[in-house]
Amino acid sequence: MITSTQNERVKYVRSLGRRRARDREGRFVVEGTRLVHEVTRAGIRPALVFFTEDWAAGAAGQALLPHLRAAEEGAWPVSDAVLAACAGTETPQGVLAVVPVPRVAPREGLILVVDGVRDPGNLGTLLRSAEAAGAGRVVLAPGTVDAYNPKVVRGGMGAHFRLAVQEMNWPAIAGLLAGRPAWLAEAGGQVAYDRVDWTVPSALIVGGEAEGAGAEAARLATGTVRIPMAGGAESLNAAMAATVILFEAARQNRG
Length: 255
Hints:
Layout: H1 8-15, H2 19-25, E1 27-31, H3 33-41, E2 48-51, H4 53-57, H5 59-68, E3 75-77, H6 80-86, E4 95-100, E5 111-115, H7 120-132, E6 137-140, H8 150-156, E7 165-167, H9 170-177, E8 182-185, E9 191-192, E10 203-207, H10 215-220, E11 223-226, H11 238-254
Parallel strand pairs: 2-3, 5-6, 5-10, 6-7, 8-10, 8-11, 9-11
Antiparallel strand pairs: 1-4, 2-4
């Protein structure tokens, strides 16, 4: 059992809390039974697994641990203190895994472009909603929080393993969107979201919470779309607004 936070494997896992280390290693950390289960469902071989004895003795541990023992660098029992030092949650669930960044192929469907969303919780919700609504891919423009930030991973609830998530610069985004309508979500948009024909291959651009979309996004947009509000509400946050529009697009495409 690993009991020291000075253990080299522990130091390695903790280093992945920093984006620079994640980018260098091409790996990130998932925590908790549900997300670790998503790893096994996706057929991904973990690089490294930490678990507590209490977790291993429970029903979840007995079901998942046989699959996790194939980790490249081993599945290691650790003390509660070590797991707490590695985890990003206040009450760790007893297991975490280091996994390679998944390579999910884009599919047909709406392209969601996220511009300058810096709140990890919002981006996690955006990814979860995009996957649930059947979006083809999510493109992260410069200035957007890292998709593999621990809070984004928790908020995504497994979407990272089923949805193409790609970082691109603006010239690459322009090339991807060429020839298709690109709708920019704005509080004062020209067209109500449920009046857009989302059955046409399209893109939805969502800007950040504080400043909205930037100039590059505005230049790429072929139109702006709004969500009509009742009462005194002026707008929704980025994740809520995108979710409403994504599911309208999904409804239309179901016929």
